[in-house]
Amino acid sequence: MHGPGAFLAEHSADIAARLDAVDRRPQVVLGTSEKMDVPAGSVHLIVTSPPYPMIEMWDGLFQEWTGRAPDDPLFYKACHRVLDRVWSECARVLAPGGILALNIGDAVRSVQEGFRLFPNHVHATEGCERAGLTPLVPILWKKPTNKPNAFLGSGFLPPNAYVTLDCEHVLVFRKGEPRRFPPKDPLRYASEISKAERDVWFSQVWDGVRGASQERSDLARRTAAFPDEIPERLVRMFSVLGDTVLDPFAGTGTTLRAAAAWGRRPVGFEVEPDLRAALADVRAPTGAEVVERLRAKYPLPPGP
Q1: Across-strand partners of 135?
Q2: pLDDT tens-digit profile of 70-86?
Q3: 3-class DSSP state for residue 264?
Q4: CA dihedral 243, 235, 14, 95 (to 10 degrees)
């Protein structure tokens, strides 16, 4: 299976002690991430899924932020100007070699000029590049659907049908050059993933990861359906034990819980006061608990 099982068999106590020496207490801030009270260069990984411009469920939120209505021709670009301010802050707080992993979906909508695509991933990429981040190969998350043959337009008669929008993007950016570590850094070695995980996680298309269910409440309509598996993969792909992981759109805390469970320090910003209770139960496990979780996931093969 590989992974850190063999390493942890010899170094469990040391890794647990090193984790306990790191301040991994969760930090949840009720406020905007356009200006984050986080020291520059202190965050190793950012994993987030922001509101998507031109998706109806987030129209009200973007109206509050931009002062424009969805039927305003300038609404779409105004939404991305708000998000651009967040990407600039992300670039500021990232450490050298730190990673921003950004899950965002495009939108299709009928507006004054007719039915069209709003390519949110393009504008987000441009905004992150303007902030000084380097784009890396993105991930296409192909979301399972109950309507695999759904289409819009003229159906079987060419040419006026439309391709089904069933993928989201996980955009990946790095701040500067690749991150450097001391030789044989123990926390890095204890963060190793298996070959099977690497082969799936570092493929460009992620298939079979279902989106989180979305309740029909006003609060749920203002949070992203971010399944646990997406941030868990990203946290383990792009950070090591003891790192600080930030989500500028914390929502119900999916990223924060993944970071805490895998021995990272979670930091989150959220503007919705009603989500405070949902975020209050994010807890940092002890170093021994993190090590036990890893050893259970990567057991050593039985001896001869």
Answers
A1: 173
A2: 999 999 999 999 999 99
A3: coil
A4: -20
Element (H, E) at 226: none
Give me the mean pLDDT over the 256-283 stretch: 89
Nearest by Cα to 107 from 162, 179, 148:
162
CA 277 – CA 280 distance, rounded (Å): 5
Q: Is the dihedral of CA 148, 201, 224, 108 positive or negative?
A: negative
Q: Per the structure block, which two tokens stand in for 297?
A: 């996931």
Q: Percent of the chain having pLDDT more than 90?
A: 78
User: Position of tokens 């004054």?
Assistant: 112
53 CB contacts (<8 Å, ≥6 apart)? Answer: 62, 75, 76, 79, 80, 83, 107, 118, 120, 123
- Tell me which residue has tokens 């299976």: 1
Residue 161 tokens read as 């049908």
- pLDDT greater than 90 at residue 296: yes
Between CA 171 and CA 138 the distance in angstroms is 5
Q: How far apart are CA 21 and CA 246, in angstroms?
A: 20
Distance between CA atoms of residues 26 and 261, nearest Å: 11
Which class is domain 5-297? alpha beta
CA 150, 152, 155 angle in degrees (round to 5)?
Answer: 85
Q: Tell me: pLDDT of 66 over 50.
A: yes
- At residue 201, the 3 state secondary structure works out as helix
**Per-residue pLDDT band at 215 (split at 50, 70, 90):** very low
Structure confidence by residue, pLDDT tens digits, 151-193: 667 667 788 888 889 999 999 999 999 999 999 999 999 999 9
Of 27, 14, 88, the residue nearest 259 (C-alpha): 27
C-alpha 169/C-alpha 49 separation (Å) is 10
Rounded-to-10 torsion of CA 70, 74, 79, 85 = -160
Model confidence at 220: pLDDT above 50? no
